[in-house]
Amino acid sequence: MEDLIKKLTDEVGLTEEQAQKTFEALKEYIMAKVPPMMHPMIESFLAENKDSDDPLGDMMKNFGG
What we know:
By secondary structure, this protein is mainly α. The protein folds into 2 domains: 1-33; 37-65, no CATH class. The chain has helices spanning 2-12, 16-33, 39-46, 55-60.
């Protein structure tokens, strides 16, 4: 998440607050478009997990349940 916020502030020129609001709006939009059973996978993907060196693998752990 922090990487996306930084990208929005650096490359798009948004303020930190604008970037946070944009991120939340995008997250809400995505969640509304996918089935509820996929919400944990998306939450995991969007969450910042500095302990993991395999975010895609961590996301896939939630796939299907």
